[in-house]
Structure formats: structure tokens, C-alpha cells
Design brief:
alpha/beta; Nucleotidyltransferase, domain 5; single chain; five-stranded mixed sheet
Length: 373
């Protein structure tokens, strides 16, 4: 009651409904001094509800059923061809949903929410529910993803910017460990998401923090957004591959990672990418004054020993807030699953009972809450 600001009677009524719906469970009576009714411990019942999310990247789709702790119960990925037609990609989403749903334990099927969260590349127009010329996503101009699902698909589809979804996934799983942070996805492109007090900031159009399109090199490489010198055009995985090919090396990223251990020119490309990424992140931290930067993406993990040091140096030594409080730099524990977990958590936001103060208290705490009911 103290944490929610609700009366004892209101808390009791809400908890009763949540218990009835199987979303919370009692942990037993808590000991207390004095007389009166002893409070009952209540915590989220992790498998009381499951949600499905799928995140679409340029070269893969990731899907997951998650529980109320934000933990994937089953998950999987499919590689896709870059430049694939949207209709084929959405068919893959349906197939991945069917495959992962079939892997759920029968005892959990009744708790699976009948909806899908879909993480999509930006920019995304919420009014028309369409993608608006997303960079490096040919054929997706003004495409409404919902319209591409099979005629027999009846479940609601909740769309979210993929980088924002990934940030939401990190917030959902980290709980109170990370309340204010910047999320950066590094891979074929570079995306960003902002979490303030455990809530994602989406901006007016839902496309806030397009980190990949922060200019870092004056009159630099032409970016698919139409500008020049964007960090995505200069320091993403695709940019590094292009630069390596221009130097006469392979354009295969896996081979570039292998060559970097003994080829100085390749190592310099990766260090430069880390330096430019650091400039974009430094500007974002100075603007939003967050406590942490979380970097995700399988491809980043492959090259983190070259990219991470310049980022850590910039955020430790150059942020305006450095004399007040340091900025921690973390690698995403969710890896490539962050987008899928975030997309699934959008389903929870849309379909769970609307009792914000109490539900938020329970969901965003790893401990049980004490209530009388």
C-alpha cells in the first residue's frame, strides 16, 4: 500500500482479481510486531501469462514466448535474405510463431495471450501503421505489416519500432537494476532506444532516438536516409564490410573478424568504428543524462574487444555528468533475443489488467509485495 499509494481496500480488491486470474501468487503470511491482521506476501506468478514477440532485422527474425519475468520460455531465429519481399518475411513470422507455439508445454498453452508483438525497423508512421522507407529495407516503403498476414490470421498484432522494442525488453528483464538507460543495437544497422524511469520514450511519432542517423563525419559516406556521415553509414557492420572491400579485403563479416587479429588495416577499421560509435553515444548521454548504456547485437559481441574500449573511454572521461555520477556500459544479457522479448512485452502492456500502480510495483520488483486482503 505504501508503494502504490492505494488504500488497503483497493489493494485487496485488485489482488483478489489478480489471484483469480492466476497472474500473482501468495508467498504466505509475513511476521510483524503488534496486533492486527498479518500482511500476506504476493508476487508475480511468472507463468501466469505468456506473450509472443517477433523482431524483424535486415538479415534475420527472432521470436520468443516470454513469461511475466521477461524470461524467454521458448525462442528461435530464422535467417532471411537481405532485400527479401515483405510478404515472404511476414510468412516466415507466421511460421516461426507456429513452430515456437508448438514447443510450449501443454500446461502453459492456456496462459498464452492471443496476440503477437512485432518489432519493426524505423521510421514507422503510427497513423497509417506503415513503415516509411526504412534504410536498407528495400520493398518496405509504405508497407503496413498487418495487411500482409494471412487472411486466416485473427490475433491482434501490436507493432513497435524494433530498437525501442529491444530497449523495452532490457527494461522488462532488468527491472529495478536499470531504471534509466540508453539502448544501442549494433549490427547491419545501428538503432537506439531510450528508457526513462522504466518506461520507453517513443517521441511524438514513435521514432525517438534514431541513433544510427546521428552525423559523426562531416560530408562522410552517403547514408540510405539521405544524409551523409551518419554513424550507421560510417561505423555499422555493413559499413565496416564495405570499407574492408574497398581496401581489397573480403566483405564477409566473419572473415573480417578473423582477419582483425593479425591484419592492422582491418583492426584499424574496427577501432575507428568504435570511436565513431562512441561519439554518437556520447552526444546521446549528454542530451539525456542516463545512468547506463546497454549495447546489444550478436555482431557487436564478435568485435566488442575493438569497439568497446573507445566507447567506455568516451563515456567515462568526456560526459558532462562524469563529475557527478559515472555512466556504466553494459553488454545486453539478452543478446539477439532483446527485440523479441521487447516486442512480447508490448503484448503484456496492451492486454494485462489495467491496474498500473500495483501491477507496476509487482512487475518491476524482484521481491514480493506485502498486502492485506
Amino acid at each position: 500500500m505504501r508503494l502504490t499509494g492505494l488504500s488497503g481496500q483497493s489493494v485487496g480488491a485488485i489482488v483478489g482479481r489478480l489471484l483469480q486470474q492466476g497472474l500473482v501468487e501468495e508467498t504466505g503470511a509475513e511476521s510483524q510486531a503488534g496486533v492486527g491482521r498479518r500482511p500476506i506476501g504476493v508476487k508475480i506468478r511468472a507463468t501466469g501469462a505468456l506473450a509472443f514477440g517477433c523482431n524483424i532485422e535486415r538479415d534475420r527474425i527472432d521470436g520468443a514466448w516470454i513469461d511475466l519475468n521477461g524470461t524467454p520460455v521458448v525462442s528461435g531465429s530464422d535467417l532471411i535474405d537481405r532485400g527479401e519481399e515483405p510478404e515472404r518475411t511476414i510468412l516466415r513470422v507466421e511460421e516461426l510463431y507456429a513452430r515456437l507455439t508448438a514447443q510450449l508445454e501443454p500446461s502453459l498453452m492456456a496462459n498464452a495471450l492471443p496476440a503477437i508483438g512485432l518489432g519493426l525497423p524505423g521510421p514507422f508512421d503510427p497513423s497509417s501503421e506503415s513503415l516509411m522507407n526504412p534504410p536498407k529495407f528495400p520493398h518496405w516503403e509504405r508497407v503496413n505489416p498487418r495487411s500482409l498476414f494471412s487472411p486466416g490470421w485473427k490475433q491482434p498484432i501490436f507493432c513497435e519500432n524494433s530498437a525501442t522494442a529491444a530497449a523495452l525488453g532490457e527494461a522488462w528483464q532488468s527491472r529495478t537494476e536499470l531504471r534509466n538507460f540508453l539502448y544501442c543495437h549494433w549490427g547491419v544497422g545501428i538503432g537506439g532506444g531510450l528508457v526513462i524511469d522504466l518506461d520507453t520514450y517513443r517521441g511524438v511519432t514513435g521514432n525517438a532516438l534514431e541513433l544510427g542517423h546521428v552525423p559523426v563525419v562531416p560530408n562522410g559516406a552517403l547514408c540510405e536516409c539521405g544524409s551523409r556521415g551518419c554513424v550507421e553509414a560510417e561505423a555499422s557492420m555493413m559499413a565496416v564490410c564495405r570499407q574492408a572491400m574497398d581496401l581489397g579485403f573480403t566483405e564477409s563479416f566473419d572473415e573480417i573478424v578473423f582477419l582483425a587479429t593479425y591484419e592492422p588495416l582491418i583492426e584499424e577499421l574496427l577501432i575507428r568504428a568504435g570511436f565513431l560509435l562512441a561519439q554518437a553515444l556520447l552526444g546521446a548521454v549528454n542530451l539525456f543524462d542516463v545512468d547506463a548504456v546497454v549495447i546489444g547485437g550478436h555482431h557487436f559481441q564478435q568485435v566488442s574487444k575493438w569497439l568497446l574500449p573507445p566507447v567506455e573511454a568516451a563515456l567515462n572521461d568526456l560526459t558532462m555528468r562524469r563529475e557527478v555520477r559515472s555512466v556504466s556500459v553494459k553488454y545486453s544479457t539478452l543478446g539477439e533475443a532483446a527485440g523479441a522479448v521487447g516486442a512480447a512485452s508490448v503484448v503484456f502492456d496492451k492486454l494485462l489488467p489495467a491496474n498500473p500502480p500495483l501491477v507496476a510495483t509487482l512487475v518491476h520488483s524482484r521481491e514480493s509485495a506485502n498486502v492485506s486482503h
